[in-house]
Amino acid sequence: MSLSSDQNNLFIGTEKAEIYKINMLSSANAEQENLMTALINQKPMDENRVYGMFSCASGLYSHVYGIGLLRKENNAGYWQPLTTPGGVHGISKIVEDSKGNLLWQLNLECIARTTRAKAGTENFNTVLQTIS
């Protein structure tokens, strides 16, 4: 399970790529969503845990184990997968700079557990994508 928040919402990520968005001003309006709807012909499995939810100026980002990084732009009704470098199995933080660049920090525990995450382990802040 993962927990994160922004100014108005609490995000809870669980197994099978499910998230719950709870408005902290009105908790009666909680929303449930499955991130696997962004992927065609894939059913959520227990190991598809949501390891992080990140609220940025351009939208919401989520890292799902075994799937990768997903984005839901502001005012969009759907999630879309983003390309991440091979071997990235855990993202602990995403921030967006004033130019729309996403900076991400790898989860060091995930790097230590995988042999595929060799590149980029010295520089943990990496530009992931520029949004124009």
Task: Describe what this molecule looks like in 3D.
- This protein is mostly beta strands and 132 residues long.
- It has 1 helix and 11 strands.
- The protein has one helix at residues 108-113; strands spanning 2-5, 9-13, 18-23, 31-34, 50-56, 59-64, 68-73, 80-82, 91-96, 101-106, 125-130.
- The strands form 3 sheets. The protein has a 4-stranded antiparallel beta sheet, with no helix packed on it.
- Measured on Cα atoms, how large is the radius of gyration? 15 Å
Give the SSE string: EEEEEEEEEEHE
Q: How many distinct beta strands? A: 11
Contiguous low-pLDDT stretches (5 residues minimum) are: 110-132
The residue-averaged pLDDT reads: 75
Side by side, the strands of the main sheet go 1-2-3-4
Q: Estimate what percentage of residues fall within beta strands.
A: 35-45%
Distance between the termini: 32 Å
Which secondary-structure class do the elements indicate?
mainly beta
Please give the count of helices: 1
What's the helical proportion of residues?
under 10%
Main β-sheet, in a few words? 4 strands, antiparallel
Mass-distribution shape: globular
